[in-house]
Write a structure and sequence with these properties.
Elements: H1 29-45, E1 50-55, H2 61-78, E2 83-89, H3 96-107, H4 118-132, E3 135-141, H5 143-150, H6 153-163, E4 165-166, E5 169-170, E6 172-178, H7 188-193, E7 199-202, H8 207-221, H9 229-240, H10 245-262, H11 269-288, H12 293-306, E8 312-313, H13 314-327, H14 335-347, E9 351-355, E10 365-369, H15 374-388
Parallel strand pairs: 1-6, 1-7, 2-3, 3-6
Antiparallel strand pairs: 4-5, 8-10, 9-10
Helix pairs in contact: 1-2, 3-4, 8-9, 8-10, 9-10, 9-11, 10-11, 12-13, 12-14, 12-15
Bound molecules: adenosine-5'-diphosphate and magnesium ion (MG).
Length: about 400
């Protein structure tokens, strides 16, 4: 039985898992360099530092922050500076106390998960840091979710907390990660500690960049010769529509699994096409899941009015949005807020909204669905809205 199943194209499939962090992140040298420059004072003078990483899904924000923190810690060890780091995903931990609890758990894995206030947990964290004489870099991933839910109070406390010195050193630095610019979401007190220059942007990957990312990961994950250049190119081409490395890696893994299922020695372009078809529906879902109700209603309106059209205008969408709200007994947002919803969808990479376009006069905004067929999108969103109530 085991022998009959045949050889696998995989050499090390774990390198395709979402939490694997490669030694080197391709085409993120500029972002990495900026982080190093920002955090040099932490090593040299024990000053705290803060940074904000912004970019759409799959642009390598999480992976870059982890690689950076691991390298920083290692560099610190070589230079007798105790540096540690902790990352919290604020979508999974979306209250202030569960965020700070996870940080406390970094030093005390068995710390009770209830019964302590935020102030108490901060004090406990401080004691742990004093005892260890360590500088902690806290990475708040998907920080916008926390900010939206709970405001910037905890972030403010952590930045202030970082500025208080112990033995002449500051001991907490913060890295905030978000798809949107979180600086706009911070209150003025916290925003002033996050200076403008500390914003590090992550652009979508180009086809050429994705090719390198895919080739790097393929060489780690597959046996030699298991995927050819044409296979790598096609994966990159498919993912380039989104500029999303996560999608590329997902397709790579699925293509390998399809090849294994067939008992093929090599991954062919047909396997890649099959993987695209499968991944398609799951990537759509993962992009849509974080949307709030009115963002979903706006997207439903875009899907409905886009059927059979290359693009639609704000006016088309706004009237379809009002109808969609009416159908579900929701109060439609006023024009400016509605405009904000469309901008959110653009930022999240679900649609593209650009001022004017070919064959259109004046200053209209042109909205295009990215790669998701309007009908499929309409069905998915309707389903999600139905499930919510
Ligand atoms: N520049 C890169 N080089 C190699 N792998 C990358 C690169 N950027 C992203 N990846 C990989 O793509 C996937 C998605 O990256 P991630 O950091 O989670 O994106 P984001 O946090 O921006 O959504 C991860 O598996 C990551 O390792
Ligand atoms: Mg991420």
């Amino acid at each position: 039985m085991w022998d009959a199943v045949g050889k696998s194209v995989f050499e090390d499939q774990r390198t395709l898992s979402f939490d694997y962090v490669p030694q080197k992140l391709m085409h993120r040298e500029a972002q990495m360099k900026k982080l190093i420059m920002l955090f040099r004072p932490v090593l040299d003078t024990n000053f705290a530092q803060n940074a904000v990483l912004v970019g759409s899904v799959g642009t390598g924000k999480t992976a870059t922050s982890k690689r950076f923190c691991m390298d920083l810690k290692e560099y610190g060890e070589k230079h007798q500076k105790a540096i540690d780091w902790a990352i919290v995903n604020c979508r999974q931990r979306n209250s202030e106390s569960s965020v700070i609890l996870q940080v406390v758990n970094h030093f005390q894995p068995n710390f009770p998960d209830r019964g302590f206030s935020i102030a108490e947990m901060l004090r406990i964290l401080r004691k742990d840091l004093e005892k260890r004489k360590v500088h902690l870099v806290i990475v708040l991933d998907e920080a916008d979710v926390l900010l939206k839910k709970a405001g910037s109070d905890l972030i403010y406390k952590l930045t202030r907390f970082g500025e208080e010195k112990v033995d002449g050193r500051e001991f907490i630095s913060l890295i905030l990660i978000s798809q949107k610019n979180v600086l706009e979401m911070l209150d003025s007190a916290s925003a002033s500690t996050f200076k403008r220059t500390n914003l590090i942007e992550f652009g979508k990957y180009s086809y050429e960049e994705l090719k390198d990312i895919v080739a790097q990961r393929a060489s780690l994950a597959f046996r030699d010769g298991a995927i050819g250049d044409d296979g790598v190119d096609l994966v990159a081409e498919v993912a380039a529509e989104w500029g999303d490395a996560r999608f590329a890696i997902e397709i790579l893994e699925k293509a390998g699994m399809l090849a294994d299922e067939e008992g093929a020695e090599e991954i062919s372009v047909e396997h890649v096409r099959g993987a695209k078809a499968e991944a398609y529906s799951s990537i759509t879902e993962s992009k849509l899941a974080p949307l709030d109700r009115h963002q979903k209603l706006t997207l439903l309106a875009i899907a409905r009015s886009s059927k059979g059209k290359a693009f639609v205008t704000t006016r088309d969408v706004e009237s379809a949005y009002k109808i969609a709200c009416e159908e579900r007994d929701e109060k439609a947002r006023a024009h400016t807020a509605f405009w904000g919803l469309m901008k959110d969808l653009d930022t999240l990479g679900v649609v593209s909204a650009k001022k004017s376009g070919p064959g259109i006069s004046g200053k209209t905004t042109v909205i295009k669905l990215l790669d998701i067929p309007a009908k499929v999108l309409e069905q998915k969103i309707t389903q999600m809205l139905d499930d919510e109530v």
